[in-house]
């Protein structure tokens, strides 16, 4: 039996749109009218090389058992009993509703793992709206837009992480592969580096059929386990890619960064880090990916100290979150230094995957507030109450308090930078979300 994922939620939260995205074809009818889906729909799809079965269910509604809505509810419950994982979808635009709370309470009593998805989070405030989902007690709400395809790669990764290991992976004893992207501007040496890592002349050829894209994948093993190179073809067909990025031919880079866990950014050491390299590094930062810089063609560099200093100066001045990113000088053509690249990748991936213990996090938060309290905003005090690490991959902090949502950008940077220093995470992108308390008696 294939691992089974049931997609459930209230009517009209976007379950069928999400189902269509995940299976890669339009199987379920999508309409704004609540209750369009009445029967369960099933389809198979492959994610990350693993075949899965998805079930699109009718909307969950409280109703008498003999009514149509009641029978639809019973059908959804039957799907949950079959499932290895439940994807519970809420509408971030509508906010948390009483039925959402009731179904979340019911799901918490079930034995099946639940992945909470906040749909309809397109736009600038979408991610913040998703944070409301924390009150359901089902873990980290994952922001997606099924209609626009945003957040689907992260959802696919979370689905794979929450499912039991595939039997062949258990037998191999190495776990799931590290997903790695090799990115950079043309002629920086990406293909040569790939061939050197593989130890053979091997072009990335013929696209494998993927879920929502044509993917090119190459798999190998380093000393720490399996590695899968992820790349994306055909991404330029997306209408919403910014024109400036399209002109710079980094459309495929966006797709690779969405799919990977760590990116190796290959620079031409003779040319240094130019605007296109900066754009790619900022894309990696925006997607929250760990990065290692491969300073290629090192064998041809005469003044090596100056070449390295130029790159580190750019990182210091233009990429605030990338200060401390590992820089590994290599020659992909000769193999010089390439043996140091994958150990650096593994180290930065471990940092990117860090979850700070609650006690240590509380001590850090108390210390930074004591050292530098939040400033007044419009003459009113911001009182921060507590912080929690919502997730890793990348480390994401949630800060709560009176008027916390008004925290100035400089103070947010202060919190992020001191967190990075306190827990030794150089070069790791760190997310910070601030949420104000709704208590009218909160201290002014």
TrEMBL record:
Keyword Cell membrane: no
Keywords for the protein's UniProt record, in alphabetical order: GTP-binding, Hydrolase, Nucleotide-binding, Repeat, Ribosome biogenesis
GO biological process: ribosome biogenesis
The keyword Repeat belongs to this UniProt entry's keyword annotation: yes
UniProt: GTP 1 binding residues: 9-16, 56-60, 119-122
Pfam families: KH_dom-like, MMR_HSR1
Subunit structure: Associates with the 50S ribosomal subunit.
HAMAP family assigned: GTPase_Der
The protein's name: GTPase Der
Gene responsible for this protein: der
